[in-house]
Amino acid sequence: MRILGLIVLFILCACTPKGSGLITSAEREGVLYDGDSRQEVTTSDRTYIVGQATAMIFDGNKKSFPSLGEMYPLCQDERFQDQKLIGFCSGVLIAPNKVLTAAHCMQESTRCQSSHFVFGAFNGVQNLAIYSCKNVAQLDRKLDYAIVELDREVARVTPVKAASSFDLNDQDFVLSMSYPLGLPLKQDIGKVLDSSPDSSFFKVAVDTFSGSSGSPLFDKKGQLVGILSRGEDDILEDDIYRVQTQGGCVNFNSCANGQCRGETFLKTSHISNKL
Fold first, then answer.
1. How many domains does the chain have?
2. What is the DSSP letter of 35?
């Protein structure tokens, strides 16, 4: 998830709709951690409602935004290269005027002042309402979560419902919604790798990147079960060194089955009394 970019010297830095649930049996076949399985969200998807509640957090002081292809010397087979990188983190609406995200997205003293929020920033959508951070109501660095109060209630968006208990098991399938690298909203089906009951965190094999921090994870009922805290490197340091010294292009890190430890999510059931 940590991006080690290559601009100049690589920037150093991973209510349910009607129907049978968010994850169907067809989507459960062949879900792999290696290979890019991210998909766009559209108004026809049953995931649309939770997608609308997923926040992109961006710096309101920035005036221009590069495309993915302009930002990184990626190989031609990497996807979404013509899309703009706008956000620096993700989050999710948990009350009409409150967003849950990762603490490391909001812990800088000036972060609230410069942060703006849009919801349901699907590819091609324009003229979204922009919300500002009024204050950081809660921030826990140990559990890595923050609750942000917005300047006003979010219109025509339904806040998500958090699961009251953590009932996932290893190999269960989950739905990720995030703005990877600051791109427009992407969805991905992931698989739980480690659901240890003794930890506040759990591991998931799912395609997330820098910019996905604070993003929501949903169970098949559409309940919020986690937010992203940290994960694997987006680009390997050996690849960065090779491009810096020899030229060429890079691919994002691809984790074959069992190679990577997984992305780390905070169990939202462990902070349900705070939401």
1. 1
2. S
